[in-house]
Design brief:
Shape: globular
Order of helices and strands: HHHHHHHHHH
Radius of gyration: 18 Å
Helix content: 55-70%
Strand content: under 5%
Number of strands: 0
Structural class: mainly alpha
Largest sheet: none
Length: 245
């Protein structure tokens, strides 16, 4: 698959969302589409959560994998740090990943999630969006050489759907910030390859179960603490985000 084609595909959710915003509201729909991307005033506590949650989940998952008998191995991407670019690869990878994550998040969380939450509430909206999000990723299972083709499809689906609950929780508690979920998405995708935990790297099904278990645990914890309606505390009632804007 030519690189230009898959990059275009990644931006499909954002492109569709922008078209729908313009269809609904005319040229002012552009402002509505991009406004959540500038929502950054959601407090220091949630900035810490947004920036710290991905490394915590990955670190705990890797520790669980090793404690359950998984073999330690050096992540292949670390070999690139020894080259001419060295550590410069990390910020470059982060910027690229953030841009690609934005191609998804303007659509999934910027448009579809608020629409679903208006009708169904946070839990059902997360479930429906998670299934759509997984279905959108399924073709990667059939792309030769793609890392996700090494992830058992059922477990991969459970992991993506569970992660959708985490994104909704972050989105709602940051006042509907697409910036917040894009940062979380980008950090997770950037940091993930630096530890040898993905099944395509380990070749061990245990790593898939650990990743799914970690995401399910966080999703269930959110449901247990926050309930199903909004994933927010009453004082944070800025629920879903940009409804009515």
């Amino acid at each position: 698959m030519p690189p230009g084609v898959w990059v275009l595909a990644i931006f499909t959710p954002a492109g569709v969302a922008i078209v729908l915003h313009v269809y609904d509201s005319g040229i002012s729909g552009l402002r509505t589409a991009f406004r959540p991307l500038t929502a950054w005033r959601f407090g220091l506590r949630w900035w810490i959560v947004v920036l710290g949650l991905a490394p915590v989940i990955l670190g705990v998952s890797y520790a669980a994998y090793l404690s359950l008998g998984g073999a330690f191995q050096r992540a292949p991407v670390l070999a690139q740090l020894d080259g001419p670019l060295g550590l410069a690869i990390v910020p470059i990878a982060l910027v690229v990943t953030l841009v690609l994550a934005l191609g998804e998040e303007l659509g999934w969380r910027g448009y579809l999630l608020p629409l679903l939450q208006t009708r169904f509430g946070a839990a059902v909206a997360s479930l429906v969006l998670g299934v759509c999000w997984f279905a959108w990723h399924v073709p990667l299972q059939f792309v030769p050489g793609d890392a996700n083709s090494g992830f058992p499809i059922v477990l991969w689906g459970l992991s993506i759907v569970a992660t959708a609950f985490v994104y909704t929780w972050l989105f709602n508690n940051t006042g509907g910030s697409v910036l917040a979920v894009t940062l979380f998405h980008g950090l997770f995708n950037t940091l993930g390859p630096f530890i040898a935990l993905h099944p395509s790297v380990t070749g061990n099904p245990l790593s898939a179960y650990v990743l799914v278990g970690a995401n399910l645990t966080v999703a269930l914890a959110i449901l247990a603490v926050y309930g199903t309606r909004s994933f927010t505390r009453p004082r944070n009632a800025a629920v879903s985000s940009i409804e009515g804007q």
